[in-house]
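Field notebook, page 273. I keep forgetting to write these up properly, so this time I am using the form the group agreed on. The chain and the ligand, zinc ion, are recorded exactly as supplied. Prediction of the bound pose follows.
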Amino acid sequence: MSFDDRRRNVRSLLFFLVALLGTAVVSFAGTFAGAADREQNGRRYTPTAADRALPPAVGASPGPRVALTFDDGPSPQVTPFVLDVLAAKQVPATFFLQGEHVAAHPDLVRRIQAEGHVVANHGWEHSWFPDLTPEEAEDDIRRTDDELTEITGVRPVLFRYPFGQPSPGGDAALARLGLTGGVHWRWASDRPGDFQCPGAGAVTDYVVTEAVDQAMILLHDAGDVVGCAPDQLDYLPRAIDTLRARGVTFGVVAPSPVPSTVNAGSRAAVVPR
Ligand SMILES: [Zn+2]
């Protein structure tokens, strides 16, 4: 083999290696882009003819009023679908957002706010507050508050403890930060909640059963529900249509000096948006 032949061989080998590397890089990037696309393309909701024929929402009305509350979000897998349904059905809701998810998906937080829902604080990393020191409790709440304020330009006024588990240190921090909480929810039935993945029929049944006047209904748009079958989300348009047919209207959670008898004594009320 001549020197030139050897040089040509080395050159073809190099060319081959570069091409191989290029293909690997493209396919590696493609895998990531694919994953990102799948994540961003969670289920979406298309308004029905009945949704499009809804008259514009009116403020106060005489029937029972309930608040749909969504915890642990936002998530790209569930929040867009929830927001699509709420927009199509003209239903306002209250979102108790988790700080670390807020920091990861500020665009979804902005969409929640832009579409007229209430943005509230659910702590930074879903801690069990009884295990936190008073300093840790205050840091968890304050950090979430600051992140939400930076993204929305509005400081939240409501806080819900993760797992509904308060602590004296947490309560002291809420008082210092001027937040109302913990905001609880109505849980009068023994039915499984959405986080237990019981399916669309069972979650619809749970929502409809809990929906007495002033009920704050506990639902989720992230956390455990991300692992439920995607068609469980059918509960949301179904439950809204069922309740509306019964004369129920939808409000949002607001601070109140009077403890709520149907929501475990929460100092909060369901008011028209
Ligand atoms: Zn939670």
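OBSERVATIONS:
- The first strand starts at residue 65 and ends at 71.
- The beta strands are 65-71, 94-97, 118-121, 216-220, 249-255, 268-271.
FOLLOW-UP: compare against the apo run.
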